[in-house]
Each structure stands twice: as C-alpha cells, then as structure tokens.
Specification:
By secondary structure, the protein is of the alpha+beta class. It has helices spanning about 150-165, 170-185, 190-220, 235-250, 255-260, 270-285, 295-300, 305-330, 330-335, 345-350, 355-370, 375-390, 400-420, 440-445, 460-470, 475-480, 495-505, 535-555; strands at about 5-10, 15-20, 25-30, 35, 40, 45, 50-55, 60-65, 65-75, 80-85, 90, 100-105, 110-115, 435, 450-455, 485-490, 515, 525-530. It is a multi-pass membrane protein.
Length: about 550
Amino acid sequence: MEEAYNVEVEFSDNQLLLRWFIEPGYYLYKEKFKFKVDGQTHTATLEKGKVKYDEYFEKDLEVFYNTTVATLDTQSLPRQLSLKVTSQGCADAGLCYPPYHQYFDIDLDEKLAQETGKPSTTGGSSQNISGNIDSNTVDTTSLSDGSATNLWISLLFAVIGGAILNLMPCVFPVLSIKAISLSNAHLSPHQQHLHGWAYTLGCIATFVAIAAVMLALRAGGEAIGWGFQLQSPMVITLLMYLFFVMGLSFSGVINIGSRWMGLGQEASQGDGLRHSVMTGALASVVASPCTAPMMGSALGYAITQPTFIALLVFAALGFGMALPFLLLSYLPKLANAMPKPGAWMDTLKQALAFPLYLTSVWLLWVLINQTNSNQVALVATGLVAIAFAIWLLPKLPEKGTGLWIGRLTALGAISLALNFAVNAKPEKADELWVAYTPKTLQELREEGRAVLVNLTATWCITCLANEKVALSTDTVRNAMKANNVQGVKGDWTNADPQITELLNQYGRSGVPMYLYFPPKKNAKAELLPQLLTPEIITDAIQRHKNNNLADISNI
C-alpha cells in the first residue's frame, strides 16, 4: 500500500501538515483517517474530497485522488510527540486495502519528523499509550514484507480466495455443469484425474497470464492492480457479449456449450482433455470481474514482491479456483453422489443461465459508469446484432447462394458488435463544459466570461444531432478554447425546475435551447437557432468579440 500512497510531513506556524501523494488510479477514504498523539485521538482538518459511491461500503463517501493534506493544530501539543496515522484506500480496479497505520516521532521545536515502526509500550513518549491498546493498534498490513511466513500466509489466502470464486454467479454455472458432466461421463479413475489436472492447468495458466501482463505494465510505469483489464470499456463489452452468448447457450437457444466449455459427453472423447483446459481458462476469464474474500490481502502482497513471488501467488489463486473440480476428480464417492443424468440436467442448465444474464446486466452498469449513454446504446445494439446472427444462422439453406449471403450477413452483424466493443472508450472529463446551475451561470457572468449554454436531454433527437454535427466538432471546440468561452450544459432528461425556469425566461417550453452570453458582465444573451451548424456558433462568438473590441475602442 505504501507504494500507492506516499506521505510527507511539513511544518508551518503552529501547524503540522501531512501531505499525501496518491498514485493515479488509487484513492483514500476521508472518513477513514484517524490521528493519535501520544495515544490520544486528535482532530485534524481535512480538505473537501470527491463524492463517490463506494461498492465496498455501499454508500456515498468522500475520497481523495492525486493528493490531499491533513492539518493538525500544534498549539496545545507537547513539543516532542509520537504520532500515529491511520488511513485506508482502494484502487479503481477494485482492489481494496485494509487500514494502514504509520508512526512518526515529531520534534516541533527542531521541525523534525521521522517515520518509525510500531512503538513499544515502554520507554519515551510511548509510555503514554501503555494500557490503552485497542483494536486500532493492530497492524493488519504486515503482509507487505517478503518474509517466508507472509509468503505462505499469502499463498494460503490466495488458494482459499480462489476456491470461493467458484461461488460467484458468473463462475458457478460453468463449474456445476462441468462437474456433473464429468461424473456421468463413464471415465476411468485415471482419466478423471487427467481431466481434473487439465482443468487445473487451464485455471493456473490463465491467472498467471493475466498477472504477467499486469506486472509488465506496472514495470513500464503504469499504476494498475488486479482487475486492471476491467478498466477497459472494450474488455467490459467483450465480457458482456460472452456472458450473453453463454446465457443463450444455457437457455438452449444455441448449442455451443459442448464445443466451448467441454460440456456433455465430449469429456470422454480423445480430445476431451483439451476441452477441460479450455473450461478452466474460460472459468478463470469469467471470474476476472470478481474479488473473493481473502484475495485482497494476497493480491496486495503479490504486487509488492519480485516477479517470481508475485506469479507464484497468482498461480496459487488459479489452483484454488480449480481445487473443487480437482477434488471431485479424485473422490469417486463424491462423484458417484452427483445426480444421475436425466431431464433435470437440462432444466438446471437453463436455470443457471439467469446468473449469466444478471452478470451481463452488472457489466452493462459498469460500462455506464465508464462511458456514457451513447456508448451503452451502441453496445446494446451490438447485443441485438449478435442475437440476430444467432437467429439467422440455423435458418440458412444447406447450400447455394442463400447460404453464403446469410453467412456474410451474420458475419456483418457480429463484426458490427465487435466494432462497437473495440471503439468503446472511457469518458473523459470535458473542461469545456460544466453542469448548469443558476449559481454557476451567475458566477461566470460576474467574471465577465463568455458563456455558451446548451439545454438538452437524452431523449431529444434534435439535441443529440446538434451535439454531433456542431457542438462536438473541432471547429466549435477550437473557437471556444481560443476565445475563452465556457460551455454550460443543462440536462433536462429528468425534470429539473431550474432548467424549466431558464427555458421560461426565454419563452421556450422545451429543449433544445442555446444561449450565447458575450464576454461582458451585463450583456444580454443571444438566443441561437434550434438547428445548429458550426458556423452559427463560431459566427456568434466572432460577432460579439468584434462588438466588444469596438466598444473598447470608443472609450
């Protein structure tokens, strides 16, 4: 954790400043900061953080990105003191750390600060905390060093966490159907063992491959952690497509399970081992969005260790993932206890499709938070294109021109879906535009800034067309930058009385509405047409700029 969150101690008049430097992609929780001076809780002043809905705590929390400062008033403090600081952070990729404790010996007279280890309960100022040990004094981050004990603990945590991954909604359908198919495939004990180890190989190889890419990127300077692949909208989209197709397969709409996941009787054929390896790889891929209990500590330890140790921990994670299936292949009594084949298997497989559909919905929610509604609409269109291709292929004639036309049409639909996935990009903050509030607009006007107001809604086709052909073009954006024009966007997708009031002020009852305020404090707004072109906007900017220069020349 200390690699992602570096802290420096600074001194000011009657103040002690603790300044954190946070690596990109990581953040610290404001409410998790705690400060103790000689064992007694001390209040510090913290900056205002960014409000973020946190899945770990399931509520809105203030967090700090990049940097933050905590200020302690030292007027009432002893001149030599021991300071304990507690903080807790997470990575955007989903890896969260336990509370982290740091200890400092501070000399306010000499303005010296030295970070120390956990103090003893005897000697010096640490005597003041003797007998006041509570749960907060237990350092839960001791796995950060590379001792043999911590290595074995981390490996154990990785194996247990990997085993728990099998209970995740996205993994359980694959494992359960594979386990049932193996127990009913009339294999010899030796063949069952081979399939168990083939599945294990697929799991371990996949986890190690993902980890190797992550470590290579970290070595290249990227501040990423486990789950980094889920920061890519393209990967999220492809996974959503995969879960959707798997769900259709489990529902019986298409019959690809025996080829892709080694289901049914193919496990007993000569090439069944290959399918068991593929099943392990697939199960590991679909488990990548999930983080199980105990995984966090093990992965946090892994990314701070040399490459070989790190890959060893990830291999243990893959082994834990494969462990239930591997045990099944070695326990014939357990395998024989599995229900015998019958119509119920098809019903079970269809029922297990619904966790896969729900996983697709969850990934769609992740994509909404990563991109925007336009991108989500394209990805949803991609799902429809995939469904169309799946519907079309079984209806094609066995030969002739119609067969090839149908195949090319299906291929085109799938290519369209893949194109939407490849072009999915994270939505970046656009400094040219800020959200509309009456206060924001008033402050910009009092500064004498030129302002372009865009009142829009996602269900307004004209609004979306104007943004595409005019507002988002390089011509308009360059003109706004060159003339210091601030864009203000009011989203009327949901009812907003403040936007309604602004519409009424200019005699409008609906969107779109575009206003251009010239760079004068008291200048009146120009109401622009409802159908925009780049020239309409740039002409308005230039016209009012020239008028302003003419006014200045007449002074």
